[in-house]
Amino acid sequence: MIHPIPPGTRDILPDEMRELRRLHLALLDVFESRGYGEVTTPAIEYDEVLARGDGRTADSAYRFFDERGDLLALRSDMTVPIARLVASRYASAEGPLRFCYLANAFRAVRPQRGQMREFAQAGVELIGTPAPAGTVEVVEVLEATLDAVGLDRAVIGLGDADLYRQLLTEFGVEGEPRDAILERLATHDLVGLESELSQAGINTAQVETCLALSQLRGGREVLDQAREIGGPAVERATARLGETFEALEERGVAERVRVDLGLLRDLGYYSGAILEVYDPALGHILGGGGRYDELLKRFGVDLPAAGFALYVERVHVAQMEEESRRGGSP
Amino acid sequence: MSVEVAGTAGAKPDGPLKLAVPRGALLEGTLDALDAAGVDTSTVRSESRALIFPGDEISLVTMRPSDVPTYVEAGAADVGITGKDVLLEQSDRMVYELLDLGYGRCRMVLAGRREDERLGEAQRRLGMMRIATKYPRVAERYFESTGRQVETIEVKGSVELAPLIGLADGIVDLVATGRTLEENDLEVREEIVECTARFVANRVAHKLRAGEIDELTAKLREATAR
Description:
Shape of chain B: elongated
Helix content of chain A: 40-55%
Number of strands of chain B: 11
Strand order of the largest sheet of chain A: 1-5-6-12-11-10-7-9-8
Largest sheet of chain B: 6 strands, mixed
Strand content of chain A: 15-25%
Helix content of chain B: 25-40%
Radius of gyration of chain B: 20 Å
Number of helices of chain A: 12
Radius of gyration of chain A: 20 Å
CATH topology of the largest domain in chain B: D-Maltodextrin-Binding Protein, domain 2
Strand content of chain B: 25-35%
Distance between the termini of chain A: 37 Å
Oligomer: heterodimer
CATH topology of the largest domain in chain A: BirA Bifunctional Protein, domain 2
Largest sheet of chain A: 9 strands, mixed
């Protein structure tokens, strides 16, 4: 007899589980060796606590009442629960705090898209170390992780979450038009972006600035190209990125980092540096992260923070692709 | 252990760039634009039944326009060309829309039977219209945004048939010349959105093959600019 399970969930059988377990151990090994202690938090939390971290509860799709009538939610990532944990249990700790996790998170799926409702994430959170040092450490750990799991062709995109918000403020675009433009940037709909910009009441040069910036990605030279475009917001963002990039170069870990001014992640809590991870063997993003210096404040602890999360199943698929490309054994 | 995984074809920076080409109404315009941008399309034009046309720098892969976002989102094709109508209907596909190519211009419209007030009548008496369409999500969004309630009925073939034999009060469909509507005694009641061909890219390919994709975008922009 066949008993169905909800779409977007799955069973994992021994052959795959054996490989996944090896991957889990390799990931946690890197995290632990860098001083990140593993934590586990409940999959279910109070909805109002999660919502504090992200007004949109980071797509938390599953809410339900418990026997007392309290509204509960399944976590949609681990960053918000760890922020909650830090505020409640480490409020007076002298930073920096280093945590890692390997946990399942839950998100809404759109039907027939092969998306997962329940998926595993592995990542780290570095709390109490400001930019650029904190960002650099997180990128270093990320690179060590990618190396450890055999994804030596993977690339890290480095962008700035505040660039467009500040740029649009500088141009005097606020409220709904600004959100519409940020939305187009996040989905990278350039045709829509152009039309939103042209309706925002800014001049042609300003429209061109936004469009040109969103296309700038590559090595260090991108920062110079951006500076030529000019303006205080661009100046500030390129200064932040330049500082981070230089520090990465000093540590010898800038090689696989691509500066990307078109990068904009859609989670609500990012500020400053943002990261995305790509591997040529996979058409989907492997993971991402960045700074969220304002997030802990929402939980009552004013600490800068940064981190990243990798989608474990995608890393596994990329690993297999890379292995078969190399034609060798793992 | 060597593992082959089906369906996870990637954006490999080493091979030629894979470009998804829409068959059907957009094919001619697409091949012309590609020719003008310096991409060799002679093999596709030779009316071969093949689906994949390898090239040194760019390989062309032909498919239904509505499949283009699927292949590009998964990275099986690095870039592609398809209609805005398809992108609107599949707006949850995560592909980067890089360029409006300008050709393949047509309108998404609400149409009803000529000199027949069934649409307005249904709306007035039932507060509800039955709309047949190949674009249920575009239709639902449009009526929702204009504050009307509809029952959308998804059909796959000739949508014009639906109001003629009483399946629906009206249709939401794409019209280029309007001749098909006319021949079936239908007329445009409202224009929803204008659609043209768009150049789209996979998110990862857009980052990892930035140089090639930017170059092709620039050439296509030049080739299709008026």
